[in-house]
Amino acid sequence: MRKKIAIVLAAAMAAGLAGCSSQTAATTAAQTTAAQTEQTQEEADSQEETAAEEASSEKAPEEYSGSVVVYSPHDADPLNAGVNLFMEKYPNVKVEVVAAGTGELCNRIAAEAANPIADVLWGGGADSLAAFKEYFQPYVCANDEFIGEAYKDPDDLWIGESPLPMVIFYNKELIERDGLTIPEAWEDLIDPAWKGKIAYCLPSKSGSAYTQLCTMILGHGGKEDGWAFIEKLYDNLDGKIVDSSGKCHKMVADGEFHVGITIEKSAIQYADDPNVGFVYPSDGTSAVPDGVALVKDCPNEENAKLFIDFVTSKECQEDQSQNWGRRPVRNDLEVGEGMAKLDDLVLVDYDFDWAANEKESIIERFNDIMVD
Description:
By secondary structure, this protein is α/β, with parallel strands linked by helices. It has 13 helices and 10 strands. Helix 2 (76-89) packs antiparallel against helix 11 (314-324) and helix 6 packs across helix 7. The protein starts with a helix and ends with a helix. The model is unreliable at 1-37 and 48-57 (pLDDT under 50).
């Protein structure tokens, strides 16, 4: 009998211990859940506070000050318009502009690398910028989501800001006077009838002229065979080669040349002039974008980034497109009046890496043609 009672008592004690253990586990679990909930709430509150602090710490436009040095090959009017818009928005930031050809500016940035003067390079074909990308530093602009990957450097060392189809610009009056036919293709320009009548810039001086050179090589036989076309074209230049790409369209409009090899953004400026016009070459053009880049170790980095954000903004891109014929790079904007859609153009298979990495040898080969 005692033995049975002992067994019953032992069973009761075990049941009691199990009940206590279960109750303790439940209490502990509840306490843990409460602590986790409290911790999660604290983290959420902390994140909200951080976000609020970041939002409240953003500067108002008038709080930015100092200066920014911009190197740019853009034509004077759109360049000044963009700079003036920036200064209207950021009245206490002084913009200092150095204007010259892309090649000259890139070489200057390279020469100044130990002690940079420029903060931003605004303009110049992205293939030219890529050839000097060791002198730029990465930056993902505030408008990155609106710019296609095809218009950005893979390492964020430059950002496309305006795709640039290459065109043939012509003077109707001179062409009609001499009984010629408006050229429709690059191929037309090697006809002897155009000898001495073509305005083209030195590729070593101009980024756009360099892109035009590569475009014509790639569209007429490729990296080696295409040089035969360039030799014929140069022979038709008859020694008349200009030292600034900005002169090509101006000299055609002024009647000094019948045709000029130039960029869409320059040709579109003459939309209201009935005496001139332009064509997209039927044997293939290119649409390499103008780029904007942050100079490595620049002295005014904050304002430089601010400027890059601005020139890729909807505000600036709309103004440059509507008033200065510059094709926007943003995918939330339409092209301006008189511009063909890129999908409607015949585009060469532009080898970006080749154009960037072989720039020195390509220019040297062109120079050799000039002295032969």
